[in-house]
Amino acid sequence: MYHRRKWKTRLEARNAVIDFIERRYNRSRPHSTIGNRIPAEAMESFYARTAPKPAAPARAAADLAAA
After folding, report:
1. For residues 2 and 17, is the Cβ–Cβ distance under 8 A?
2. How many CA atoms lie within 13 A of 66 on its CB side?
């Protein structure tokens, strides 16, 4: 895709390469620092582990007195 396009400036070409690396390449390749998983899988796993637990329903005063 990028090899078929002519860029107006070096800065424009540089930004296109950075965009490709950050948005496509790095997000789809496995990373050794996160167990050879792709970043999206690592983030899903992280959010699943750290999600707040649902609060227990409040007990009625009568239930508390009986306990």
Report:
1. yes
2. 5
